[in-house]
């Protein structure tokens, strides 16, 4: 609605987990490097955890785009062990139908992973919302998949993504093999400003659309969480547009935060 008013090509703060929406920041880049090193070198599974809205899924997809090989992103992990193995056999194997037995699916998945590794690729499995796994057998199946090893390290790289609870729920057999435990916390104030400006620039912004005080207010109101920054920045621009302002000011952010909190509480 406000894009033409502010000279933008498209909405700047739409929710997205596309790697193209990633805005580099020191805290995010550090986590990305740590996870990439652990997974590229086959050191074992890794965990990316943090509060809701901190950008975990986006960072996981950014990581997948940088690694060599196919990535399967499981977004609903509350599956039985048999369902999970069948799903992975289909996704990594490109089959339209999966062997009916668990053993058949496991054999197919093992062979497909080995073929990918032989071509110099490193298959990646991202288990999102991993704290929702409620069956020990599902965790055990994931652990056993790490035993598929063609030439030393596991053929499958495994990344768990979720809230901090996932660290408490991982069975000892998996927790003891973790190569990285990475917390994705809130952005710093400087990073929040960089994030907002980066999203605006990607949408075609040629001039500043938030005053410095407005950017500071955005960070404080959003607690440095990217998802909340998206909502508040979008609403603040809408409020500025409705008042025919050329730029969003601190008072626009204050109104946006008040309205957003009221909507969430309703």
Topology, please?
Blueprint: H1 3-6, H2 26-40, E1 46-49, H3 56-66, E2 71-74, H4 81-93, H5 102-118, E3 124-127, H6 136-145, E4 157-162, H7 165-169, H8 172-175, E5 180-183, H9 189-202, H10 212-222, H11 226-242, H12 250-265
Parallel strand pairs: 1-4, 1-5, 2-3, 3-4
Helix pairs in contact: 2-3, 4-5, 4-6, 9-10, 10-11, 10-12, 11-12
Q: Count of DSSP E strands?
A: 5
Task: Give the rounded overall mean pLDDT.
Answer: 91
Q: Could you say what the CATH topology of the largest domain is called? A: Rossmann fold
The Rg value, from CA coordinates, equals: 21 Å
Question: Keyphrases for this structure?
Answer:
single chain; 266 residues; alpha/beta; Rossmann fold; 12 helices; 8% strand; elongated
Description:
- The chain is an alpha/beta fold and 266 residues long.
- It has two domains: 26-183, Rossmann fold (3-Layer(aba) Sandwich); 187-265, Helicase, Ruva Protein, domain 3.
- It has helices at 3-6, 26-40, 56-66, 81-93, 102-118, 136-145, 165-169, 172-175, 189-202, 212-222, 226-242, 250-265; strands spanning 46-49, 71-74, 124-127, 157-162, 180-183.
- Helix 6 links the parallel strand 3 and strand 4.
- Helix 4 (81-93) packs parallel to helix 5.
- It is elongated.
- The model has no long low-confidence stretch (mean pLDDT 91).
Structure, briefly:
With 266 residues, this protein is α/β, with parallel strands linked by helices. The chain is built from twelve helices and five strands.
């Amino acid at each position: 609605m406000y894009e033409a008013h502010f000279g933008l090509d498209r909405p700047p703060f739409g929710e997205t987990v596309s790697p193209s929406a990633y805005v580099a920041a020191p805290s995010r880049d550090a986590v990305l490097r740590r996870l990439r090193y652990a997974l590229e070198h086959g050191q074992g599974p890794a965990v990316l955890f943090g509060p809701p809205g901190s950008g975990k899924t986006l960072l996981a997809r950014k990581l997948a785009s940088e690694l060599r090989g196919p990535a399967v992103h499981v977004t609903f992990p509350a599956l039985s062990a048999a369902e999970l193995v069948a799903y992975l056999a289909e996704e990594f194997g490109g089959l339209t139908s999966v062997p009916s037995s668990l053993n058949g699916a496991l054999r197919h998945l093992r062979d497909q992973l080995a073929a990918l590794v032989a071509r110099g690729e490193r298959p990646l499995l991202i288990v999102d919302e991993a704290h929702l796994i409620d069956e020990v057998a599902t965790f055990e199946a994931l652990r056993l998949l790490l035993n598929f090893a063609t030439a030393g390290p596991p053929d499958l790289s495994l990344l768990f993504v979720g809230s901090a609870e996932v660290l408490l729920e991982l069975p000892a057999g998996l927790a003891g093999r973790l190569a990285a435990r990475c917390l994705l916390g809130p952005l710093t104030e400087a990073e929040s400003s960089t994030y907002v400006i980066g999203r605006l620039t990607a949408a075609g912004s040629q001039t500043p659309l938030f005053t410095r005080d407005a950017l500071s207010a955005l960070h404080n109101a959003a607690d440095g969480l990217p998802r909340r920054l998206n909502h508040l920045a979008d609403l603040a621009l809408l409020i500025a547009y409705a008042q025919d302002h050329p730029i969003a000011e601190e008072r626009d952010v204050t109104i946006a935060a008040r309205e957003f909190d009221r909507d969430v509480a309703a």
